[in-house]
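Quick sanity check, ABC transporter ATP-binding protein:
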Amino acid sequence: MAQTIEVTGLRKRYGDVRAVDGVTFGVEEGEFFGILGPNGAGKTTTLEIIEGLREADEGDVSVLGLSPWPRNSKLLPRIGVQLQASSFFERLTAREQLRTFGSLYGVASKKADAMLDLVGLGDKADVRVEKLSGGQAQRLSIACALVHDPELLFLDEPTAALDPQARRNLWDVLREINTEGRTIVLTTHYMDEAESLCDRVAIMDAGQILQLGPPATLVRGLDAPARISVATGVLAVEDARLLPGADDVADDGVSLIITTRDPSAVIAAMAAKDALDGVQIHGATLEDVFLELTGREYRA
C-alpha cells in the first residue's frame, strides 16, 4: 500500500533538550495512525514538523510525496490540520466560521455547510462559537480542518479536556471520517483512545519511538497474565489460591483479584464454586506495554 507519510531520522533540539530524537516511521494511505505518549514525549513537535509548521534539525519527511518544509503551498490544499489549541474568529456562528475557513480554499458555502452535519453540528449552525460546549468546539475545529476535503488529516490531542461522553461522541465522528477513506494521524496521551481508534500506534517517550504496531499486536506481544476480579467476600482468599491456574491472589477489601495465565481454567473452577457473581476479566493494555518498555508508571 502507498505511503502517505514517510519520516526518517527526525531530530529536533531545544538547547540541551532532545524533543525529537531519531524518529522513523511511515503512515499508509487510508490508515488511522496514532502517536501515543505522555505530555512532553515529543508528539506535538513531531506532528508540527510533519505538518510543515516547524523545521527539523535533522532527518527527512515526505507527505503525499512532497516535502512539507519550507512551507509548501502545493501541499496545503491536500492536508487538514487541527491544532492542540484552537482559535476561532470572534462573534461568528458555527456556520459563519466554517464558511469563512472554506472561502480561503474557494469552497462553496453549501459544501461548507455540509461539514456541520458530518461532525454532528447541524443543529448548532446558528450558535455563536463562544456559546458552544468544549466538545462542540472541538468538532467545529475538525470541520474547519475538513472543509476543503483534504486527503490527510492531522489531529493533535483532539479530545484533551473533554468529558468522557464528549470524548466518545468525538470518537464516533473520527471513525466516520476515516471510513470515508481519509488518512488520519492522531496524537493522544489517552491509552484507551489509541486502542479504540488506531490501526497502528507509535508509542513515544523522551523524543523516541519505543515501539510501533497495531494495538492488539503490541499487547499480545507482552504475554502478560489476565486479572480476574470479584467482589470481596464472593470467594475466600484461601480458596482462590487453591484454584487451578491461579498464579497470585490479592484482596484489597473491595475486590479479590486473581492473576493467571490460564483464565479459562480459573473461571471454570470459580463456576464450580458458584463464585462468578460480578466477575470481571481484565487483559493487558497499552499501559502495560508502556510500563514494560519504560519500567515506570504511565504519566498522562
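Posting the structure with no commentary besides this: Residues 153 and 160 are 17 Å apart (CA to CA).
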